[in-house]
Write a structure and sequence with these properties.
Belongs to the helicase family. PriA subfamily. This protein has 739 residues and is of the alpha/beta class. Helices cover 33% and strands 23% of the residues. The chain is globular. It binds a DNA duplex (12 and 12 nucleotides) through strand 1, strand 2, strand 3, helix 5 and helix 7.
Length: 739
Amino acid sequence: MPEFANVIVDISHERLDRTFQYRIPERLKDRLQPGSRVRIPFGGGNRMIEGYVTELTDRAEYEPGRMKEIGEIAGGGLAVESELIALAGWIKEHYGSTMIQALKTVMPVKDRVKEKEERWVRLCLNQEELGAARSLCIKKHQTARLRLLEALKENPRLPWAEVAGRLKLTMAALRPMEEAGQIRIEGRQSYRNPAAGTGLETPPVRLNEAQQFIVNQLTGEIGRKDRRPALIFGVTGSGKTEVYMELISRTISAGRQAIVLIPEIALTFQTVQRFCGRFGDRVSFVNSRMSAGERYDQFERARKGELDVMVGPRSALFTPFGRLGLIIIDEEHEHTYKSENMPRYHARETAIARAELCGGLVVLGSATPSVESYYQALAGRFRLFRLKKRASADSVLPQVSVVDLRKELEAGNQSVFSRELRKKMESCLGNGQQMMLFLNRRGYAGFVSCRSCGKPMKCPHCDVSLTAHRNGRLVCHYCGYSVPLPKACPSCGSPYIAGFGLGTQKVEALVGREFPGARVLRMDYDTTAGKGGHQAILEAFGRGEADILIGTQMIVKGHDFPGVTLVGILAADLSLHAGDYRSSEVTFQLLTQAAGRAGRRGIPGEVVIQTYMPEHYAVQAAAAQDYEEFYHREILYRNLLKYPPAGCLMALQISSASEEAAEEAARGLANAISDSCGTEGQVTGPADAPVLKVRDIYRKLVYAKAAKYSTLIAAKDRAEAYMKDFPGASKVQLQFDFS
DNA sequence: AGCACGCCGACT
DNA sequence: GTCGGCGTGCTC
């Protein structure tokens, strides 16, 4: 049993947002674990306060002689905080972050939240008493009190920010005044309920046989023996949401709470309405646009038991529910469930870890499950349920055709639109129906280069070429840098500069030229930057205010337009060249989802996939709407190269402002982990990141593949040890990424 | 956040 | 001297 315990103090203040180290007394050894709630002496007066053990260790980070001992274990060790701290411990171990980083993701930022909370100082004296109090203060030279009383004379109710800020009063001066009954400090906890008053009561829908079967299978098990996560593999429109609703309902009836994770983009007004209609004010929502304070409010309501359901993106997973019984992850294949910051946790794996801690059930849903999840399901580690039929009988699968762009070129057609797509667009417009055109690249042209020297225009801060935009500027899609399009090539002075490739803006221009009359909307990062940007565009299109919606991937995610009968995928290959082992999977999912947008009410939809690689299995399988076929081909490839889920993969990203420092550290790290893995694993690199430089920071990559996760964890520890005594460690940053 | 410590002006 | 208010800084 380790000698010391790191403890996070149970006080919400910025200055205390770190751990303190305590000695573990003999009688408590073997009884402590990360997440234990303890009582500890704190501060000069050794007053006993509560805290949580975050970590047990033998390494003293503080002078052991001056270290205090843990007092006792505090009762009620089952508090939510304990569960979340234990989860942070799991995240730290599993994804290789520091405990503090893990804690900060799991326990929402408490700092500066207090500031935002509305607190007021109110005067409790009448005119007479105020006068008396003032003269007493003058007599006693109580300057701080006088300052406050003067201000309160003008305005008997002052906001806390002003009292603490401009008037510079501290608790030391305020407390005696409050005790004397001169003032009152009011802390009004204002909860803004984003769900308030939306939607009408919507009674539960009657489930069809397949849906009911899943619900029965799973609810019988909640709190019982089979705790395996469930994967619901249901085609678009098969009614997964109704299953979720019923599962949540039953969870609540059993006295437990539920978290629903959905991709940010799917958190639309309709979604909010749907949940509110069913669960009233017992449901709340979080999203990334909310301020830290607003999100904290909602988490606080959950902690107090005012809620039964929380809906939101990745971070909603950490809702402090004390009786969590169900975690639903909709569209579980979405890459947004993987965090981009340290710790780079995956919501699916982390949800499973949390469910284990609280004895809850995890339900995953997707029309195109991730290869990982389907693999687990086939191996029997997940329970698999299928919803094959679309819930409403009149929707039909679309007709998909694949167009070989090489043949178009041979036939002399250099346009973005193949002959087939153009014909279908004409008839679609002629019939007064709507269409969507999908292109996975925004901007006007792909890149811009000089026709005489061939040099592309590059971002000075990032290692990428700039994208031409319609407004005559060149924009960097990595850091946002933008310059006016130069009149002459900066390196050779030639005036012949031209754009190549295709972006959404250019498609918009081309549609305008080739289909004059057609009403066009464009949706991508540039047009949705403002708040409510998505919503406005989608709603306008839904109301039929445009015939054609052009956009990047955001148009294919979770929004139904009954009027859309044609979907055109202009360049299916773009995502195939990502150079990532997942690029086929991403492409397949994208194409399948895009195709699923067409024809959902009665009218059969048509889909045209344009590609230079019509024979690629991701394209073929998507055209045939055949997930099994895709999975079969994909898993062969992953097995062969031992990529996840057939093996484990750890990526080290080494970043530094100095390329040499990054390179040197990367080399050393590659050797260190290669040493650590031995014959168990395979190390590649160091190599430049696909985009070497972003925002003036160089990034190098080292990969380690192994059959067993533990091999990689050991390698991670070795890498951390290496960085500890690397001379230039302060200049170099190391990030781990497990997948 | 809460508490000790030290500074400073006022008063027995 | 020394008492009490008030600002500062530390808490394993």
